[in-house]
Amino acid sequence: MATIKKLSLLLVLLVMQVIVNAQPGADSLLNFIANNKSRAAFYLVKNEGVVCRQNENKVMPLASTVKMLVAVEFAKQAGSNVIDKDSYVALSELDKYYIFNTDGGAHPGWLAFEKKQGHIKEDSVRLIDVARGMIMFSSNANTEYLMDLLGLDNVNNNIQLFGLKVHTVIFPLVSSLFLYQNPHNASEDKIIKAIRKLSEEQYSKTILQIHSALKYDSVLKKKFRPQDLSMKMQQLWSDRLPASTVKNYVQLCSILNQRKYLDAKAYGILAQELEFIMENPGNQKIYKRFGLKNGSTVFVLTEAFYATTQLDDRIEAAYFFNGLTQAENEKLQGWLNDFRIALTQQEKFRNKVRTMIN
């Protein structure tokens, strides 16, 4: 059980922090990027001009940052009245997608938050709050429920819509963990070898079959064995998550920041999902909009964001890390808030980034 507790697709506290004055963590994170070129990718744009680039075309696992595209599809369908964002979904429906102890406490944390806010009515919650929980708390259960509601093909079609030329197929993240189960105590190396042989298409197709079974087979979920997820298993699982590049995700963020492709109603809904930190009055004094999503596994840390300041500067950035130790991951998480503040508020720091990275 100790191993699975380390496994997390999300960073709950990272996105909950309020944008305030930057601290020295920004320099620490920048130094890590500059000194770990084989493990870090970074792309920063200001007003459509590239400030810096490092490994911008390197394909890396996205972890929960991929949920930005699920949020986009939710906004599209809710904006065009295909779904009603204010309709209620039973918590029992969401629970079908929840696998205990595989999300760093995100889903229970989200439920506690919604209960405190008084949003739960007759054991049901609004769809928009489900979508916000997918982003704010990075609930994997909410994500997989929404993938089914919206249609996974529709979510994947956004890769082409936004011109993301380098992006692997999106599939249910938690359902993929069942591929790494070893109920018959077979050789772990044999299982790993078999998984590595699967093509991207075979891998995602197998996961979809598992995902479909999970919705209707309560026994299957109970058979999940977290003790099977050794660090070797988790490493392979992490390596095979949906992947893309920092350049592609800055491209996506730039489109969202400039309000392209989608209509005003869809962007109003997307703001409720991705730009929730703008609900803080202090942030409204500095920014006109600020949207972000991040994610992590034991080995991976990713974040993509877009911001428009009150001075009308548009800034988009993405930074992905892979091959991290747990200690490195924890340090980077602690520096992220300072880093995004400095990138969006301090021209002096952006110049430092340009000098050190380029």
Strand order of the largest sheet: 2-1-9-8-7
Structural domains: how many: 2
Order of helices and strands: HHHEEEHEHHEHHHHHHHEHHHEEEHH
Distance, first to last CA: 43 Å
Specify the overall morphology.
globular
Mean pLDDT metric: 92
Please give the share of residues in helix.
40-55%
Structure class: alpha+beta
List keywords for this structure.
51% helix; 9 strands; alpha+beta; single chain; two-stranded antiparallel sheet; 358 residues; 14% strand; 5-stranded antiparallel β-sheet
Secondary structure: elements and pairs:
Layout: H1 2-6, H2 12-16, H3 25-35, E1 40-46, E2 49-54, E3 60-61, H4 67-79, E4 88-90, H5 91-95, H6 106-117, E5 124-126, H7 127-136, H8 140-150, H9 152-161, H10 188-197, H11 200-216, H12 218-222, H13 231-239, E6 243-244, H14 246-257, H15 264-274, H16 281-284, E7 287-296, E8 301-309, E9 314-321, H17 326-345, H18 347-357
Antiparallel strand pairs: 1-2, 1-9, 3-6, 4-5, 7-8, 8-9
Structure commentary:
This protein has 358 residues and is α+β, with helices and mostly antiparallel strands. It folds into two domains: 2-65 and 243-357, no CATH class; 84-239, no CATH class. It has 18 helices and nine strands. The strands form three sheets. The chain has a five-stranded antiparallel sheet with strand order 2-1-9-8-7, sandwiched between helices. A hairpin with a 4-residue loop joins strand 7 and strand 8. Helix 4 packs across helix 9 (152-161), helix 4 (67-79) packs antiparallel against helix 15 and helix 7 (127-136) packs across helix 15 (264-274). The chain is globular and about 60 Å long.
